[in-house]
Write a structure and sequence with these properties.
six-stranded parallel β-sheet; 14 strands; 14% strand; binds nicotinamide-adenine-dinucleotide; alpha/beta
Length: 433
């Protein structure tokens, strides 16, 4: 099938390469000329495990092509997938300007029947708005369907190639059949397509992210109680998770959720509800808890060291989670900014996200990005484990202790053994244990 994908970000590029890998003829468009130039040379602008191999294979096979011209994408696809960003606007609503611009571009150049698929995360009713915009520019027959994406950065390729479910949101039989055909190879072993109308599909995506965000804030709230009452949230988590109605996944206490989805999507959902006169107080509480949780490590550090001003602290892990270089709304940004405002310096390490982090932080005074994790900790007055990359799981604690000026560790991911570290002379603080 001829497929066009608009937007070559974490979602668009993975989807384009994934569809191409199943034999489809894919054109992937982006307005970012630098990105397209790199992609044409076979360079991947983001870090996502397995994506380089997938992209390279399909470029070589001639099934995956890149363009900066949305008109070319509009003329190419029987299916056109919109995967542009929908960031937060200043009032918390989803900024749909990129999506509407892409819709207008497509509308101007449609020359055949097309199913346009909204894969970006968008508020309820957006498929209808996109259809209106396209319709203002064309007399061609077309359908706009909703097909929210559920891939997770860090495992995006596997998630896309073997999805838990594929949600097809449309009332149009012809569009549904075309999308069923497109996705069939991805759900061959067992049927995982869920059909609904576009509005329900749009709400489903927000419902999933809001639920997961609430779960994170719930366990973080429990962890904070455990801290106060001498309980261990690790045991509580196990006890809770063994109930099949609860389950043990996605129930890890930590430094709060970040990333390009949960924060903006909870805000957008609350905003949509508000527009309809509904106060989503549960999701709003999850957001408030998360906001406070992002600074928990700094509060712990302040309690463990006499004064942070004039001292240097080392952060291990800058990406919002392991296996990605995405730092959007990463807790490490809040932590670094707060320490810098307190008059401290920071030495930073991350296997992939360092450059993105520095660019987003936008400050250089008192900030040093170091290529080696032990070198980063050398001379620091404490170590903060913010993101649990695998290489931080079993570090050489002797080497760490020799390098640190003060043996202070704040373990924001409960990765390490308090007993072991205390017996080595570290002062240790975890989350809720
Ligand atoms: P991204 O910021 O990584 O990429 C978006 C891309 O769209 C950019 O390269 C940008 O240049 C391009 N773009 C913007 N306007 C354009 C236009 N008019 N024409 C062509 N290209 C244009 O975003 P992302 O993380 O891939 O997310 C895309 C959407 O998918 C968002 O709505 C997001 O909420 C949703 N989503 C993201 C994830 C994730 O893990 N990142 C998961 C599921 C859903």
């Amino acid at each position: 099938m001829k497929v066009s994908v608009i937007g070559t970000g974490y979602v668009g590029l993975v989807a384009a390469a994934g569809f191409a890998d199943h034999g489809n003829d894919v054109v992937c468009a982006d307005i970012d000329e630098g990105k397209i130039e790199r992609l044409r040379k076979g360079e991947i602008p983001i870090f996502e495990p397995g994506l380089d191999v997938l992209v390279e294979r399909n470029i070589k096979a001639g099934r995956l092509n890149f363009t900066t011209d949305n008109a070319e994408a509009a003329r190419h696809g029987e299916v056109i997938i919109l995967a542009v960003g929908t960031p937060s606007a200043s009032d918390g609503s989803a900024d749909l300007s990129y999506l509407f611009q892409a819709a207008a571009d497509i509308g101007k150049h449609l020359d055949h029947y097309t199913v346009i698929v909204n894969k970006s995360t968008v508020p309820v009713g957006t498929a209808e708005r996109v259809a209106r915009i396209i319709g203002e520019h064309t007399s061609q027959e077309f359908v706009v369907a909703s097909n929210p994406e559920f891939l997770k950065e860090g495992t995006a390729v596997d998630d896309f190639m073997s999805p838990d479910r594929v949600i097809i949101g449309t009332d149009d039989d012809k569009a549904r059949d075309l999308l069923r055909h497109l996705y069939k190879p991805f759900t061959r072993t067992n049927e995982r397509m869920v059909y609904m109308n576009a509005r329900s599909a749009e709400v489903t995506k927000y419902a999933c992210n809001a639920y997961l965000a609430t779960r994170v804030s719930f366990i973080n709230d429990m962890a904070n109680l455990c801290d106060l009452v001498g309980a261990d949230v690790g045991s509580v988590r196990q006890g809770m998770g063994s109930d099949p109605r609860i389950g043990n996944k996605f129930l890890f206490p930590g430094v709060g959720y970040g990333g390009s989805c949960f924060p903006k999507d909870t805000r957008a959902l609350i905003n949509t509800a508000r527009e309809h006169g509904l106060s989503m107080s549960l999701v709003a509480a999850a957001e408030r808890i998360n906001d406070a949780q992002k600074l928990l490590m700094v509060r712990k550090l302040r309690a463990m060291t006499e004064d942070v001003a004039g001292k240097t602290f080392c952060l291990w892990g800058l990406a919002f989670k392991p296996n990605t270089d995405d730092v959007r709304e990463a807790p490490a940004l809040r932590i670094a900014r707060t320490l810098l405002n307190d008059g401290a310096k920071v030495r930073l390490h991350d296997p992939e996200a360092g450059p993105n982090f520095l660019e987003t932080l936008g400050k250089t005074d008192g900030v040093e990005l170091v290529a080696d994790q032990y070198e980063a900790a050398h001379g620091a007055h404490g170590l903060l484990l913010v993101t649990e990359w695998r290489q931080y799981r079993s570090p050489d604690f002797n080497r760490l202790k020799e390098g640190l000026v003060e043996p202070v560790i704040v373990d924001g991911r409960n990765q390490w053994d308090r007993g072991q570290l205390e017996s080595m002379g570290f002062r240790y603080s975890g989350i809720g244990r």
